[in-house]
Specification:
Strand order of the largest sheet: 1-2-4-3
Number of domains: 3
CATH topology of the largest domain: Butyryl-CoA Dehydrogenase, subunit A, domain 3
CATH class of the largest domain: Mainly Alpha
Largest sheet: 4 strands, mixed
Structural class: alpha+beta
Radius of gyration: 32 Å
Number of helices: 8
CATH architecture of the largest domain: Up-down Bundle
Number of strands: 6
Amino acid sequence: MLSMTGYGTGYRRSGDTSVAVEIRTVNHRFLDLHVRLPREYLCMEGDVQQVVRSAVRRGRVDVTVSIQAPQVPGYNLNLPVARTYLESVGNLGKELGMREVLDLRTLLGLPGVIQPVDSDTDPGNAPRELTSGVVDCVREALRGVERMRAQEGSALRTEILQHLESAREKADRVRAASDSVVQEYGKRLESRLNILLGQGVVDQQRLAQEVAIMAEKSDISEEAARLASHIDQFRSLLDSDEIGKQMDFLLQEMQREANTILSKSAGLEVARLGIALKADIEKLREQVQNVE
């Protein structure tokens, strides 16, 4: 089991050039990847994303890359792109009746207007050696992330097992208690009828009918059996891969069964156990939110 919480760093130095990478991961329903690179090296973003996506399946991932180099790539001004921006802004101004123009500083900051160039590579690409160094740093940082996620996952597994065993114990008690609910209801109903009727004789046939109706309405044996089955499935997932989403689904089903048990319960003991079960399921949900 892997947690979605992790942290790792990577560092490389070659001559006067140094690269540092920091990766932080936290929980998220899907893979939410954010890469921060120096502006002049944004062309490396695709390489960094490819390496991260091959190692991380789920979670928010923040990658920060710092590059210190004596020289940065040269630049090309892409005039066709700049003219297109200016024409589009001019047309928009006419359409909206606005006189605002695009200033030079803003224009130069727009994507594609200025492109980095290196003599050893195609325009728009960083030097191959530097790109390789950045990728190596990312891999080194990911190894640190994986170690931390594994450690956190081990602790998470222990906590999940504790809450799961607690839920299973309560589910078993619910099944046992449900068998005595109807008997207790029959005794209480007969006692109340005796009080209301005084010394009158209670119609045993009518009493049996009322108890049978109540038994049908409050029967929770199916819900208790399904709940136990969900708990067993949940337990078997702990040693599987890509388990987080499957656990989410099972917890929803467990919560549904617990709610039904509470709505149908006629005994105080079953109601008390149902509430405790919901608390255990909620604790499991909190833990599962951080499972990859």
